[in-house]
């Protein structure tokens, strides 16, 4: 089965590029840029990755991102993830980045985006991997700050396919960002948002009805509303589920408690994604393997999950036909 999973050509739709920063590269960049990090060894870093909820992870994730300074750093970060795509047989990836976690530290927007874009161009050229970039707004910050970031992004519009919403969910509902999502829609951006990762289903309803999103990131709390489940099924709204993330952040106690199989069996459009693989013990294949080992998943289920991700991607219909 491991070989079967490995060999399937896959897409990834929910991956924070800053969450692919491996401890080894964090150490190297800290040294290169003369940045102090609170760890003496790579093992120290790994020991710190012991989370109790989303916020306990985010604190460490934002601290880790402080080592990213130059365009080359963002290139190296992205290139290392591309090498993992090759290992995992990921043929198409749609990556999130958090510009505000960098611009807030005085790093220019263009430094971040151009480093990422250059690596993704090389990925296409060297490995034929296709990709897209989705810019996320940090929901713990204000809508005003999101609007400012949006205006800054317009100069790089051609590189950004869509906008998303991430960071601390509870207490920061989608309704806080109605205006900026409306603007993004008017400008032709695709829309996604993290919703129902930890917070209740009202966040998912708001994301759908107030922000008009086309995909829900996580969405595993949907199961608590049969009304919502019916709607998600009927409209085939994609849910980009991240099993390792949900276990590491204690959304579910263990893999056998994860509800992805129930969502799939109900007829929802769910896919498997790695979220922040450097922090959550593994890349895409490992997510599938963990599900396979703990849930009653057949080969058909795995194929369906992979097809869902290719189908729900923002690639052109022509490319979709080629891939599926
Ligand atoms: C994230 Cl797992 C998760 N949830 C919300 N925001 C995030 N940013 C990076 N990883
Ligand atoms: Zn995420």
Structure description:
InterPro entries: A/AMP_deam_AS, A_deaminase_dom, ADE, Ado/ade_deaminase, Metal_Hydrolase. This protein is an alpha/beta fold. It has a single domain (2-313), classed as Alpha-Beta Barrel (TIM Barrel), CATH 3.20.20.140. The protein is 49% helix and 14% strand. Strands 1-2-3-4-5-6-7-8 form an eight-stranded parallel β-sheet. β4, α9 and β5 form a beta-alpha-beta unit. α5 (71-88) packs parallel to α7 (109-127) and α8 (143-153) runs parallel beside α9 (178-186). The longest helix has 19 residues, at 109-127. The radius of gyration is 18 Å and the shape is globular. The model has no long low-confidence stretch (mean pLDDT 97).
Spell out the key features of this protein.
single chain, 324 residues, alpha/beta, TIM Barrel, eight-stranded parallel sheet, 16 helices, globular, binds 6-chloro-9H-purine, binds zinc ion, zinc, nucleotide metabolism, metal-binding
Give the helix proportion (percent range). 40-55%
- Read across the widest sheet, the strand sequence of neighbours is 1-2-3-4-5-6-7-8
CATH class: Alpha Beta
Ligand list = 6-chloro-9H-purine, zinc ion
Shape summary:
globular
SSE order: HEHHHHEHHEHEHEHEHEHHEHHH
| Biggest sheet architecture | 8 strands, parallel
Regions with little confidence, pLDDT below 50 for 5+ residues:
none
- Separation, N- and C-terminal Cα atoms: 20 Å
Contiguous helical run count: 16
Task: Specify Rg, calculated over alpha carbons.
Answer: 18 Å
Q: From the coordinates shown, what is the CATH architecture?
A: Alpha-Beta Barrel
Arithmetic mean pLDDT: 97
């Amino acid at each position: 089965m491991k070989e079967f999973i490995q060999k399937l050509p896959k897409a990834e739709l929910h991956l924070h590029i800053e969450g692919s920063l491996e401890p080894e590269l964090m150490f190297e960049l800290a040294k290169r840029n003369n940045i102090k990090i609170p760890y003496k060894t790579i093992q120290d870093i790994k020991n710190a990755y012991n989370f109790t909820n989303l916020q306990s992870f985010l604190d460490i994730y934002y601290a880790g991102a402080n080592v990213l300074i130059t365009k080359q750093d963002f290139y190296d970060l992205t290139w290392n993830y591309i090498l993992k795509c090759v290992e995992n047989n990921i043929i198409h990836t749609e990556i999130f980045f958090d510009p505000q976690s960098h611009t807030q530290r005085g790093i220019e927007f263009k430094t971040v985006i151009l480093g990422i874009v250059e690596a993704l161009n090389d990925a296409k050229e060297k490995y034929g991997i296709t990709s897209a970039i989705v810019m996320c707004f940090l929901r713990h910050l204000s809508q005003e700050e999101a609007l400012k970031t949006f205006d800054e992004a317009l100069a790089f519009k051609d590189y950004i396919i869509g906008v998303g919403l991430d960071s601390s969910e509870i207490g920061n509902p989608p309704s806080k960002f109605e205006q900026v999502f409306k603007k993004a829609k008017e400008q032709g951006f695709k829309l996604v948002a993290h919703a129902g990762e930890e917070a209740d289903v009202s966040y998912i309803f708001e994301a759908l009805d107030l922000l008009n999103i086309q995909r829900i990131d996580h969405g595993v709390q949907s199961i608590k509303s049969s009304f919502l489940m019916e709607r998600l099924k009927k409209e085939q709204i994609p849910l980009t589920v991240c099993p390792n993330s949900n276990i590491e952040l204690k959304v579910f106690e263990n893999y056998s408690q994860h509800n992805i199989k129930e969502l799939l069996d109900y007829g929802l459009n769910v896919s498997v994604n790695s979220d922040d693989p450097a922090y959550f013990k593994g890349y895409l294949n490992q997510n599938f393997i963990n599900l396979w080992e703990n849930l009653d998943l057949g080969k058909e289920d795995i194929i369906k999950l992979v097809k869902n991700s290719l189908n729900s991607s923002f690639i052109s219909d022509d490319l979709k036909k080629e891939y599926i």
